[in-house]
Design brief:
It is a single chain. With about 475 residues, this protein is an alpha/beta fold. The chain has 3 domains: about 140 residues, 3-Layer(aba) Sandwich (Rossmann fold), CATH 3.40.50; about 160 residues, P-loop containing nucleotide triphosphate hydrolases (Rossmann fold), CATH 3.40.50; about 140 residues, Helicase, Ruva Protein, domain 3 (Orthogonal Bundle). Helices cover about 50% and strands about 15% of the residues. The strands form 5 sheets. A 5-stranded parallel β-sheet has the order 2-1-3-4-5, sandwiched between helices.
Amino acid sequence: MQDNLTHIDSILEHPTPSKAKILVVDDEQYLLRTFKKILESENFIVDTVDTGISALEKIGNEFYDMIIADLSMPAMNGIELLKEVKKIDPELPFVIVTGHSTVSSAVTAMKLGAEDYITKPIERPQLILMAKRTINQNKLKRELRFLKSHFADSYGLENMVGKSRSMHRLFNTVKKVARSEATIYIEGESGTGKELLAKSIHNFSFRREHVLVTVDCGSLPLQLLQSELFGHVKGSFTGALQNRRGLFEEARGGTIFLDEIGEIPSELQLSLLRVLQEREIRPVGSDKAIPIDVRVICASNRNLKEAVENGEFRRDLYYRLAVIRLNIPPLRMRKEDIPILSQHFLEIYNKANGKSISNISTKTMHMFLNYNWEGNIRELENVIERAVVLAEGDEITPDLLPEEIAGSDSAGLAIKMPIEDMTLREMCTLASSTMEKEAIINTLQKTKGNKKKAAELLGISRGSLYNKIKSYNIK
C-alpha cells in the first residue's frame, strides 16, 4: 500500500500554481509593497489600494478571490469596509490585518463575516498559509454548493453529497429509474443514507406532488405492523375500537418507503407479495379488497440475497421488491468523499450552533481518512456536530474527537497525509487521487494488465487510462 501512495507527498511540495486574485487595502505603502511581494512570489495576482473608497471602486469593477484589509485606516476602517463589501458580495472572503492590541476588534470583524485575521508584524509563512487556506476553503464551499445544486437540478438528489466515482454512478442510475414506476430496493449498511436516497427518488419522480410515507419494518411486532401497513376494521382484534386506514392507503398517489424490509416477519411476507402482485390491500378483519396506487421503495442493511439463500426471506418477494437494486457504498469504500462531507456538516452545525469554525486540521482529517466509520455518514455527522459544539477556536482539532477515533488504528484504505497544514480542498484532491490510483491498480490486477478491459471497467477512454498510469507512475 505504501508503494502505491508515494506520489502523495509531492502534492504539497509542488502545488499547482494559484492564479487567485487578491485585493490588499492598507494606508501604509510599505505594508502594501510587503503584501504584494510575498503573495506574488506564490503566484497570486495582487492589486493594492490605500483607502476603503478605492477598494469599493475596484470591487465594483473587477472580480477578486479574497480581500485583505487593515483594521485601522482613516475615512473608512476595516470593519466599515467589511460591511460594505458584504453588501456587494456576501461570499467574498475578507481577512482583517490587525495589531496585537486590537485583536478583540478583529474577532468582532469575524462575527460580522470576516473569514480570518492576521496580526502585525506580517510573517511570510503565516500570510501564505492564511491566503491559501482562505481561498481554497472558499473554493471548496463553492464546489459543495455546486454539487448540491447540480445534483438537485440534474438528479433531484437534495442534500446528497459525493464526488466519488461510485456515487456518481449511483446518481446517474437514480436519474434513469426515479421517474419509472418500478419497485426499488436500496441496499447499504446502517448510516449510509438509504432513507435520504429514497426521499430524493420520490422528489424526482412523477409522484412528488403526493406524500412519501416511511415505515420502519424492524421496530414493530407482527400484528401492529400488519395493521399499520394495511389498516384494520373496528373489532378485528383487542384494542381495535374504530376503523383505521393503513399506510399503503395513506400513501395513495405517492410513495411508500419500507425501511429495514429484511426484518419483516415471515408471516407477513406472503401478504406483502400479494399486495405487489394484485396492487390491492385487505385491512385486518375485512373481507373487502381496496385498490392501491402507490410506488414502493424498500431498503435493508442486510444482504437480502443471502437471506433468500438461507431461507430467511421469500425468493419470490425478493424479486418483486428488487426490480431495480441500488447499492450505497459504505463510507470506508469512498473515502475521497470524507473531506467534502465534513465541510457539508461543518456548515450545517456552524449555523445550528452560531459558530464560525472555518477549518479542520490536517491531523484531524488524517484520522478521518484512516478511520473505519462503521456508522458511516451518520457517524461522521455526529462526530462533526460534537466537535463544533465543543470547539472554542476556529478549527476542528484532534482533542475534539471521540476516543475511538483519536486512538484508533488505521482501517480500510489508508491515506497517508503530509505533516504540514493542508486546506480542506487540498485534502479532497489528495483523497481523490489516492482512491483513483488504488482503483486503477486494482482494476489492472483484475484484468491481468489488459488496459483495454481495464479502461472499459473504469468507464474511461484507453488514452485517459494511459495518461493516468503515467501520471501516477504505476508499474
